[in-house]
């Protein structure tokens, strides 16, 4: 037995190899072993006390405590677009430093899967389509977190976790040499350079028929034997599918807790049936113990705290919103990440005096409500948000007071209809909800809410059982007459009865919602239903609803009964009118800045896009503005991965700004105006297809309508730009593409024994700038 395990009982060892709860490992207070608090994610450390409305796309809440904010850095694709190890290290260090305020001992990041297909919902969490760029920048990020701040990291998700559709059941079919050369390479780069990295997380998917979490060849042969890694190997959340097989394969930790598989009772049965040996338990427990002991040392050295279960009341999360170094680093990274895709006639940088600019119009919701990050476990509640509108307006007021600034929305960018307006549609009256056992008229709990929705998916009041009904009656009033929309979403089912003088006739709507827990968590729009009703203005619409959670939810969360529902309401409107108003304003302006975006509702863990078009009517908006202001239209796009740009030839300039984090507005402002010489210097870390069907993975990606389980990596070594080169296909933008405000000349390249030396990089333009020399 490992010396670290001496004195531990079998029960205590088994407790070590499964989580305590959603974010903590198990402590053993008897011998002074603390728990490790773990937290997402790649763009900032969320902690446990954030409201899950900042984690998921649905109004859930964990504890009812005031949400704790986090530092939100630019997303990983933005970081990769810098092609700069020093900036990647700054990001890892800053995120880890902020994580200390949440007593986080291990970050569940970085994500080092590859961007095989731009439709993957988690592309923004990954770095690049290229394994070398991914490995090198992620390694720098890891060094920033672990070496500079003493916070452990988790390399995830080994391996082939490049799609979200059916992620618990998908089976990646890939040749062994392709797996080793391409998809395992980023992990290998980091492990060989830094063999003491905190942990490796196994993917949800299977590889060639075997789940990653029980894949002995991956864990014992590749990770342990070939790479020599002796650290912790853990499951993704609910990603342990086979108990005995995962223990024999070398999976050390099942997450989250309480254990689903690794209970003392289950382990005793496996031992009695000789399906495992006690050494399998000892090996896993020893690695977990060594990780905890290392964390104790790092905590003491780097000034953060670990706690045992008996000390949990001392584990209080805080935030550091005034960290000026964090703000400065986030702005620097976000500015360097901006990729200048197009710049006709030197439309950028904007120089009001030189260009005789008197009037600037900003168009698009993302100018005022920017997309900070993608959705799912990477989503965060920011310390603050600097919007592009605020930053640009402040810059012009301070430096070019003669320039006027106007903003117009242009079009809505949202995945579903909004909540009813509290003061207008609900007249400011609270809605009383009552909890009942099914079939009983006697309530056993009452709550008042301001909106017709319930936030009880992972917290809130816990019902006596899943045999529950939540009932409410309330009135709504529309300000206009027309075909208005009502939407329903629920984990379970809803009965909705509409009546009153606002309707010509009563309506009963029986809605059957989601019953799969992860699907509800990460894709609440999947079962969204919307109906239109002719509603008369200023007349009462009476709403009676009855909600029931699923009796037998699939993949239920431990420790409670999940319940959630939402009713949305939107009055009919002319959607073309704000587009025409934006175009008219652009025609009168000297410069039109159009801000487009995807955002957390469209790029998210748990979902894949079916196409890569900008959502809603944004393409229509850009086209209208470009027609009204030819050669004066600049598009600033915020997305985590590629989007199509059918208007690309019609606009003067295009700036790709990614999900830029909480300081995104200042980063974009710096790039547009070249403030202090900080023009855009980013280069694309992935190839952008002109036509999605040109992409190597198109036919073998779940949302293309192929096999429901098998995902075939038939492109082999021809990933990303290599496919386009080999097939002679012209993409919209090449991997590595990015323009500058100046001109560089690279001279005297020498090549000896596959080693290339660049002797001179000369800026021959009239402006400062940064250049990335790429050698293929």
UniProtKB/TrEMBL annotation:
Glycoside hydrolase family 3 C-terminal domain: residues covered: 339-719
* Location of the Glycoside hydrolase family 3 N-terminal domain: 71-291
> Mind listing the UniProt keywords for this protein, alphabetically?
Carbohydrate metabolism, Glycosidase, Hydrolase, Polysaccharide degradation
Top-rank taxon: Eukaryota
Reaction(s) this enzyme catalyzes, per UniProt: Hydrolysis of terminal, non-reducing beta-D-glucosyl residues with release of beta-D-glucose
Q: Which GO terms describe its molecular function?
A: beta-glucosidase activity
Cite the InterPro entries for this sequence: Cellulose_deg_GH3, GH, Glyco_hydro_3_AS, Glyco_hydro_3_C, Glyco_hydro_3_C_sf, Glyco_hydro_3_N, Glyco_hydro_3_N_sf
User: Pathway membership of this protein?
Assistant: Glycan metabolism; cellulose degradation
What Gene3D superfamilies does this protein's entry cite? Answer: Galactose-binding domain-like, Glycoside hydrolase family 3 C-terminal domain, Glycoside hydrolase, family 3, N-terminal domain
Question: Which one Pfam family would you cite for this protein?
Answer: Glyco_hydro_3_C
GO process terms (BP): cellulose catabolic process
Q: What is its EC number?
A: 3.2.1.21
Q: Which PANTHER family match?
A: BETA-GLUCOSIDASE (PTHR42715)
What's this protein's family per the entry?
Belongs to the glycosyl hydrolase 3 family.
Q: What is this protein called?
A: beta-glucosidase
């Amino acid at each position: 037995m490992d010396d670290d395990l001496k004195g531990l009982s079998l029960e205590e060892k088994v407790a070590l190899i499964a989580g305590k709860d959603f974010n903590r490992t198990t402590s053993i207070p008897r011998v002074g072993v603390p728990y490790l608090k773990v937290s997402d994610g790649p763009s900032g450390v969320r902690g446990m006390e954030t409201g899950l409305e900042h984690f998921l796309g649905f109004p859930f809440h964990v504890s009812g405590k005031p949400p704790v904010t986090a530092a939100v850095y630019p997303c990983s694709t933005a970081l990769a677009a810098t092609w700069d190890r020093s900036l990647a290290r700054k990001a890892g260090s800053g995120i880890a430093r902020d994580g200390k305020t949440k007593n986080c001992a291990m970050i569940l990041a970085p994500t080092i899967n590859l961007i095989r297909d731009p439709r993957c919902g988690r592309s923004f969490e990954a770095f690049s389509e290229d394994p070398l760029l991914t490995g090198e920048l992620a390694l720098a990020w890891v060094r920033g977190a672990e070496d500079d701040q003493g916070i452990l990291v988790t390399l995830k998700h080994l391996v082939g976790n490049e799609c979200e559709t059916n992620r618990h059941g998908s089976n990646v079919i890939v040749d062994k040499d392709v797996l080793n050369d391409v998809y395992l390479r980023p992990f290998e780069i980091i492990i060989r350079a830094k063999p003491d990295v905190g942990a490796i997380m196994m993917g949800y998917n299977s590889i060639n028929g075997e789940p990653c979490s029980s894949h002995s060849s991956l864990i014992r042969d590749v990770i342990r034997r070939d790479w020599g890694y002796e650290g912790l190997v853990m499951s993704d959340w609910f990603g342990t599918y086979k108990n005995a097989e995962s223990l024999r394969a070398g999976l050390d930790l099942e997450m989250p807790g309480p254990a689903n598989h690794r209970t003392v009772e289950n382990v005793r049965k496996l031992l009695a049936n000789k399906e495992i040996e006690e050494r399998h338990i000892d090996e896993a427990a020893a690695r977990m113990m060594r990780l905890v002991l290392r964390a104790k040392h790092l905590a003491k050295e780097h000034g953060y705290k670990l706690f045992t279960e008996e000390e949990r009341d001392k584990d209080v999360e805080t935030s550091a919103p005034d960290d000026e170094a964090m703000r400065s680093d986030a702005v620097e990274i976000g500015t360097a990440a901006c990729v200048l895709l197009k710049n006709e006639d030197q439309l950028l940088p904007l120089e009001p005096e030189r260009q005789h600019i008197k009037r600037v119009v900003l168009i698009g919701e993302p100018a005022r409500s920017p997309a900070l990050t993608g959705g799912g476990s990477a989503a965060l509640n920011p310390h603050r948000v600097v919007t592009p509108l605020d930053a640009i307006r402040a810059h012009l007021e301070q430096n070019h007071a003669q320039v006027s600034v106007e903003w117009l929305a242009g079009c809505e960018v949202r995945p579903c209809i909004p909540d009813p307006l509290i003061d207008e549609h609900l007249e400011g009256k609270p809605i009383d909800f009552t909890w009942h056992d099914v079939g009983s008229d006697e309530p056993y709990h009452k709550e008042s809410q301001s909106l017709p929705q319930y936030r009880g998916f992972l917290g809130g009041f816990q019902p006596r059982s899943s045999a529950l009904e939540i009932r409410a009656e309330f009135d709504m009033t529309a300000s206009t007459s027309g075909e208005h929309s009502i939407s329903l979403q629920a984990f379970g089912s809803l009965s909705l009865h509409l009546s009153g003088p606002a309707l010509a006739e009563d309506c009963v709507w029986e809605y059957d919602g989601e019953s799969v827990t992860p699907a509800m968590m990460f894709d609440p729009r999947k079962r969204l239903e919307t109906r239109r009703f002719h509603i008369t203005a200023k007349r009462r619409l009476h709403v009676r609803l009855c909600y029931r959670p699923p009796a037998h939810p699939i993949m239920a969360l431990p420790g409670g009964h999940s319940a959630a529902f939402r009713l949305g309401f939107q009055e009919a409107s002319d959607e073309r009118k704000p587009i025409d108003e934006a175009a008219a304003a652009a025609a009168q302006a000297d410069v039109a800045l159009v801000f487009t975006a995807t955002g957390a509702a469209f790029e998210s863990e748990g979902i894949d896009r079916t196409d890569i078009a900008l959502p809603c009517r944004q393409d229509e908006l850009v086209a209208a503005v470009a027609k009204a202001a030819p050669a004066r239209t600049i598009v600033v796009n915020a997305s985590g991965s590629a989007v199509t740009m059918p208007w690309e030839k019609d606009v003067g300039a295009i700036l790709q700004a990614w999900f830029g984090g909480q300081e995104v507005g200042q980063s974009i402002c710096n790039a547009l105006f070249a403030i202090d010489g900080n023009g855009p210097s980013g280069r694309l870390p992935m190839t952008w297809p002109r036509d999605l069907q040109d992409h190597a993975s198109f036919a073998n990606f779940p949302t293309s309508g192929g096999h429901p389980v098998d995902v075939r990596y038939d492109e082999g070594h021809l990933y990303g730009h290599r496919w386009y080169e080999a097939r002679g296909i012209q993409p919209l933008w090449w991997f590595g593409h990015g323009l500058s405000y100046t001109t560089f000349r690279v001279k005297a390249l020498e090549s000896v024994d596959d080693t290339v030396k660049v002797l001179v990089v000369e800026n021959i333009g009239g402006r400062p700038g940064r250049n990335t020399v790429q050698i293929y």
